Prior knowledge:
Layout: E1 2-7, H1 21-31, E2 34-37, E3 40-42, H2 51-78, E4 85-92, E5 100-103, H3 117-126, E6 130-133, E7 157-162, E8 165-166, H4 190-194, E9 201-204, E10 220-225, H5 230-238, E11 242-245, E12 251-256, E13 259-260, E14 264-265, E15 271-278, E16 283-290, E17 293-299, H6 300-303, E18 312-321, E19 330-339, E20 342-349, E21 362-367, E22 370-377, E23 385-393, E24 399-408, E25 411-420, E26 429-432, E27 440-444, E28 448-449, H7 450-453, E29 454-461, E30 469-476, E31 481-484, E32 487-489
Amino acid sequence: MQIYWGDIHSHNEIGYGKGSLERSFDIAGNSLDFYAFTPHTWWPDLPDNDEAVKQHHLNGFKKVRENWDKIKQIVRERYRDGKFVTFLAWEWHSLAWGDYCMYFPNDENEFCYASTLGELKEYARQHQAFIIPHHVAYSQGWRGVDWDEFDESCAPVVEIFSEHGNSLEPSTHMGMYSHSMGGIESSQAALNQLRTGKCFGFIACTDDHYGYPAGYGHGITAVIADKLDRESIFSAIKNRHTYAATGDRMKIDFNLNEGIMGDCVTSTDSAKINFSVEARDKLQSIEIYKNGKLFAPYSALDFEKQTPTKNKHLIKIEWGWDMIASKEITKWEMKLSCENGKIDDMVPAFCGGSASVTEMNLLDKIDDNRWQMSSYTSRKNTCPVNSVSFFLSGDMGTEICLDIEGEHEGSSFKKQLLLTKADLLDKDIYETAFNKFSSPKIKVHTLISSNEYAFVGKLTDDMAKPGDFYFLKTTQQNGQMAWTSPIWIKQ
């Protein structure tokens, strides 16, 4: 089984977002394993007391109708078996029932003007599709989900995190503050609903409206599947073999008895849990929850007891910043190479936003030890920096070379950083684009050892009983988090 990464809830100018349809698929195809563009199609109970909101959405729906054939065509054309999986999808709003996205197993379906959630669920069943609710923790009536009408038979997972914030936990520093719907209603939070006996897995997506899927820090979904094709990814989501991450692509394995995340396992006298986490920064905590309450916490004291893997370290390279008041875009072209060592598992953390709806951040592999990045950064984006992280194997003499070119406010720059692992042993290394205080900057982070970024553990719960559920939450020191779908013990 493999871990595949995707964003299946994002928007662009076909609807009422920004950025072209083609750009969305270009970005997703470069940085993700699977992707769904989810144009807004209908809102049966549009508010009559807010004409501006009503017309804004009706105009967007009209644009989607006019471009539906184009959407289906690009979903078909961009699908590449074994390399990049696309899904046909659309979004449905409701004040009364909450917002849902509909996902199809093929690329030939249509959208429907369902007037009730019941009609929407029936349409999903007729077309072997599934629906996923999102920003569920808003109050019911303000586009929070109607949990009494939630149906796990056609809604296998819930989008617990996006640019709206954290819908899983009723109390969190990543609350739902960015929109006008009033934030988290604690009884609506997904965690409290799991405690009532509901059964659903977790995903996270950006819900981005700037045509930028997988924008860092706004949510990304991991799927556990045996291969990368539409049928396998679709089946894995339906079986809840998923986990949700806020931004960094942490590798997580979580098993209970014979089950993996999302499964319902046969009742036994005890629950034997095995887990592992490989983070993209220093780990702060790993927490096992039982029935929604903290059951087994692990911290840096536990991580540091591990023997680190010799000569293998995690490295992160960041670029961006610039003056706080700057409205300019900085463009970057970089090449990274390694001598006397090996680069493994290069992962992007790229950010979009309002700075540009035409620029893209792209990461491409030249060969095993050479990569190139074409990037833009801006204070107007949701984060003023971009980054990549990778594992570097080799002794302290192993070298990395970073060739940097770029442009800012009409001026070009060209730099080179030549570093050994020894240079990064206990400090960060900086370079500036220009010789002035407010210059955009590049930062190569201090080496992170395996006993700081990874952990393997196991435990047994001898008090397990039918109806119990367990999940894992992990938090990095940089604040990024991930949650596995629960594993349930059958009633």
